[in-house]
Amino acid sequence: MTTAASRWVDYAEVRWNPDWCKRCHICVEACPRQVLVLRDGAIMQLEGCDRTGLCQRLCPDMAIEVIQPRSKEGRR
Fold it and tell me: Where are the domains of the chain?
C-alpha cells in the first residue's frame, strides 16, 4: 500500500495543505492583518502578511505554515 505525499500550496509568505485543512477558519480569524481568506474552499493569501505566525500556531490541523517566520527580535 502506498500513501500519496501531502501537497502544499505555496503563497508568498505561507504554505497551505488542503488535504489536512478542515476549513475551520481559525487561521483566517487569527490573522492580525486580515490577509487570509477562505474562497471557494481554499485558503488564499492576500498582500500584506507580516509573518507573525499566529495562523500556524493556532491551526489545530497543522495545515498552514509560515515561510521564514519573523524572529522575536523582528529580524527575518
Answer: 9-66
CA pair distance 31, 39, nearest whole angstrom: 16
- Interval 36-68: pLDDT, tens: 999 999 999 999 999 999 999 999 999 999 998
DSSP 74: S
The three state secondary structure string of 15-28 is EECCCCCCCCCHHH
Q: 9-66: which CATH topology?
A: Alpha-Beta Plaits (3.30.70)
Prediction pTM value? 0.79
User: What is the rounded CA–CA span in Å between residue 14 and residue 45?
Assistant: 8
